[in-house]
């Protein structure tokens, strides 16, 4: 069964304390891995897409990496405004159509 | 650009009532989808559409109907609301099925 597991469920960091979020997946025929940020009461907002093992993408304090079994979202020197839930989703082809499988997210709290 | 607009933002229904959640996008995206988000579970696909006049079922379609008469609009109909349909509903659109999704702000639905 195709599955996406994110860890940890919740993470509290001090401002400036770097860390990593994990997204492990089992899916046949991965077409892409997506990271989204979700603020309370809002819809998910796109961050990155990774397509192949070894690929890396960066945006400000965030860096996403991909291996054949997992992806990491590295947060360097986080600030309180980085507090949010980070969602990982894999995309695969089912019956000729692309579909997402979402993880349950990591709730990040950055303390000033 | 407004992006993806969902209405209403909040709704309370009585068991057995019907209603339509509205979703509109102004980006000329072909692919649109509806998800529900429940605590402890990832976003789950209800229905999706790959273009005007074409819809298909997702992971949890029971109790919901959709139609896509125009590129811009993709309403979700609850036929006879049940407490199990209490959730936050998100509409999303993308250029194609394999590109990043743009999400609306969500509709928080409570069925009593």
Query: Could you state the order of secondary-structure elements of chain B as H and E?
Result: EEEEEEEEEEE
Tertiary shape of chain A: globular
Radius of gyration of chain A: 14 Å
Strand content of chain B: over 45%
Summarize the amount of helix of chain B as a percent range: under 10%
Q: Pair with the most extensive interface?
A: A-B, 24 and 25 residues
| Sequence of secondary-structure elements of chain A | EEEEEEEEEEE
Distance between the termini of chain B: 36 Å
Task: State the end-to-end CA separation of chain A.
Answer: 41 Å
Q: State the major sheet of chain A.
A: 6 strands, mixed
Judged by helices, strands and strand pairing, the structural class of chain A is mainly beta
How much is the average pLDDT of chain B? 95
Oligomer: heterodimer
Outline the biggest β-sheet of chain B: 7 strands, mixed
Anisotropy-based shape of chain B:
globular
Describe the structure.
The complex is a heterodimer of chains A (112) and B (112). Chain A has 112 residues and is mainly β. Chain A is built from no helices and 11 strands. Chain A starts with a strand and ends with a strand. With 112 residues, chain B is mostly beta strands. In chain B, 0% of the residues lie in helices and 49% in strands. In chain B, strand 9 and strand 10 (102-103) form a beta hairpin. The mean pLDDT of chain B is 95. At the A-B interface, strand 4, strand 5, strand 9 and strand 10 of A face strand 5 and strand 10 of B.
Topology:
The complex is a heterodimer of chains A (112) and B (112).
Chain A: E1 3-7, E2 10-14, E3 19-26, E4 30-38, E5 45-50, E6 56-59, E7 62-66, E8 70-75, E9 84-94, E10 97-102, E11 106-111
Parallel strand pairs in A: 2-11
Antiparallel strand pairs in A: 1-3, 3-8, 4-5, 4-9, 6-7, 7-8, 9-10, 9-11
Chain B: E1 4-7, E2 10-13, E3 19-25, E4 31-37, E5 44-51, E6 54-57, E7 64-66, E8 76-78, E9 87-94, E10 102-103, E11 107-111
